[in-house]
Design a protein that fits this description.
Layout (H helix, E strand, L loop, with lengths): L20 H8 L8 E6 L18 H8 L2 E4 L1 H4 L4 H10 L5 E4 L3 H6 L6 H11 L9 E4 L9 H10 L6 E4 L4 H4 L1 H13 L3 E2 L1 E3 L16 E7 L4 H19 L3 E8 L5 H16 L8 H4 L4
Parallel strand pairs: 1-2, 1-9, 2-3, 4-5, 5-6, 7-8, 8-9
Helix pairs in contact: 4-6, 10-11
Pfam family, one: DUF72
Length: about 300
């Protein structure tokens, strides 16, 4: 994942901004008796990307991956429309409790830029919902040049989205975050429609660490910089998520990327172990025997 990549990550200030005041207000009004749901995964399961993760002789990467993680941020669906049968096949290969968090196709987000996309969205949803109980939040990532001048398009899309299918939105144009009036209009749109506001933690775009949740879901895309600071940043996320859970957050969806993906499973394993301890949960630690030296 090259978005937000910098040449010298050691020069970046990775300190966390304060939690947005409206996040505290939203979380404080949630039902704290609801079960805490936590999903942590990588972006891909390809052996070529996750070198060293798969045991020698692994025949089916998804089968093995889903035996180690409870979720995947499914980026493959960004590049083309997959038929319903493919989603059914993926579902059949994974254990109970596993979830897919698929990205909407670039035809919808980038090529057509949310205009006249009803047919494409309906096809996508017909296919993706074949995952049934294994379908997590669907992920809309907008182009970096999709700015607030396109607010009406985003508004129409969000308001038309089926309310029974969870959605998260990632905006990348800087004006969504640097102009307070625009930010508030954007956040209110998501909150009013029960849509999650994606947080991206990447070196070159610290403005996307807005810390503004818009529903009972923290959907976080963490991008390591292949630098020693990656682990301290994960420690900071453990503390921030504990803070939010104590206030009322009940759904955590955290996906680990790297500029060079080879270490993503190592980072994810480290994060899961720390999160288990802090939140009192018991997610499986991927390849735990091989990770001991990290902890």
């Amino acid at each position: 994942m090259k978005f937000g990549k910098v040449a010298h990550p050691e020069l970046i200030d990775f300190s966390f901004p304060e939690t947005h005041k409206d996040t505290v207000k939203l979380l404080s009004n949630l039902d704290k008796s609801e079960h805490l749901s936590v999903y942590v995964g990588c972006a891909k399961w390809n052996k070529a990307d996750l070198k060293g993760f798969y045991p020698r002789g692994t025949k089916d990467e998804l089968v093995y991956y889903s035996s180690q993680f409870n979720s995947i941020e499914l980026n493959a669906t960004f590049y083309r429309q997959f038929p319903p049968e493919q989603f059914e096949k993926w579902k059949s290969k994974t254990p109970d409790g596993f979830k897919f968090f698929p990205k909407l196709t670039q035809e919808i987000s980038h090529w057509k830029r949310l205009q006249e996309v009803a047919d494409a969205v309906n096809y996508y949803l017909d296919a993706a919902t074949r995952l049934e109980e294994k379908l997590g939040t669907i992920f809309l990532q907008l182009h970096a040049n999709f700015g607030p001048k396109n607010f009406d398009r985003l508004q129409n899309f969000v308001e038309s989205w089926p309310k029974d299918i969870p959605l998260t939105v990632e905006c990348r144009h800087t004006d969504w975050f640097t102009d307070e009036a625009i930010s508030n209009e954007f956040y209110n749109l998501l909150e009013e429609n029960g849509v999650s506001n994606t947080i991206v933690d990447t070196a070159g775009r610290r403005d996307m660490m807005h810390m503004r949740l818009t529903n009972n879901e923290a959907f976080i895309r963490y991008v390591g910089a292949n630098h020693s600071s990656d682990y301290q940043r994960l420690d900071d996320w453990v503390l921030r998520l504990k803070e939010w859970v104590d206030v009322g957050l009940r759904n955590i969806h955290f996906f680990v990327h790297q500029n060079l993906e080879v270490e993503s499973p190592l980072l994810a394993a480290y994060f899961i172990k720390k999160l288990n301890s802090k939140l009192g949960i018991s997610l499986k630690i991927p390849n735990e025997e091989e990770q001991q030296s990290l902890f």
